[in-house]
Amino acid sequence: MVAQTIPEDRPLTADDFMRLPMDDGHLYELLQGELILSPSPEMNHQFIVGNLYFKIRSVLQSVEFGKVIIAPAAVVLSEHDVVEPDVFIIRNAQQTQLTRLSFRGAPVIALEVLSPSNRSHDLQRKALLYAKAGVEEYWMVDSEKHRVLVQRLTATGVDTEIITAGAVTSKVLPALTMDLSEIFAE
Questions:
Q1: How would DSSP label each residue in 42-69?
Q2: pLDDT value of position 5
Q3: Residue 132 domain-assigned (yes or no)
C-alpha cells in the first residue's frame, strides 16, 4: 500500500479528498479545501438518522420523485467542498450525477443530525455552504433540543424555520411530513 500525502502548499481539492484512505471509522469532509475530521456518531444520533431514512424511503416509494441516500456517502459540492450529510435526497433527473464513489452536485434536500461535536459546524459553516451550492432545503435536526431547523432557498435568499412542536413538512417534497415524535423516537 502506498501512503497518500496531503499537499500543504494549497487547499485540498475534491480529487485529493477522494484519493485519501479514510477507513478508520471517522467521518471526513472537505470544506473550502480544509480537511475536517469528526468523531464517530453517538447511538442516539444513529437512531435519529435511521428514523429519517426509513420515513423518507417510505414516502419515496409512494411518489415519483427520486432517491434517498444515507451516510457515509460523499457529496461533491465544488472543487474544494466534499460533505457527508447524514441523509440526502436527489431528484430522479439527478441520478446521472451519481458515481461509484460520490454524488456530484447539490442534493435537493440535505439532512444533518446535530451532535455536540458538530453542532456549530453544521448550524453555521455547512448551512452557508449548502445555501451557496444550491441545496433547496437543509434540515438541521437538533437532538439536544428536540427541534428541527429548516433552511430553504427562496427567490430572494434564504428563509429559516424552527419547528419545536408538531410536524415538519418539506416544501420541496410536500409528501414528506414527519412528526417530531417520529424523528426523535428511540
A1: PHHHHHHHHHHHHHHHHHHHHSSSEEEE
A2: 59
A3: yes
Structural domain includes residue 144 = yes
Which domain range does residue 99 map to?
A: 40-183
123, three cell numbers: 448550524
The domain total for the chain is: 1
Q: How confident is the model at residue 2 (pLDDT cuts 50, 70, 90)?
A: very low
pLDDT digits (tens, 9 = 90+) for 23-54: 777 788 899 999 888 878 889 999 999 999 99
Q: Look up the CATH number of the domain holding residue 124.
A: 3.90.1570.10
In a domain, residue 122? The reply is yes
Distance CA 153, CA 136 (A): 5
Residue 129 domain flag:
yes
- The structure's pTM equals 0.91
Share above pLDDT 70 across residues of the chain, in percent, rounded to a whole number: 95
Give the burial class of 67: count Cβ atoms within 10 A of its Cβ; 0-12 exposed, 13-18 middle, 19 or more buried: middle
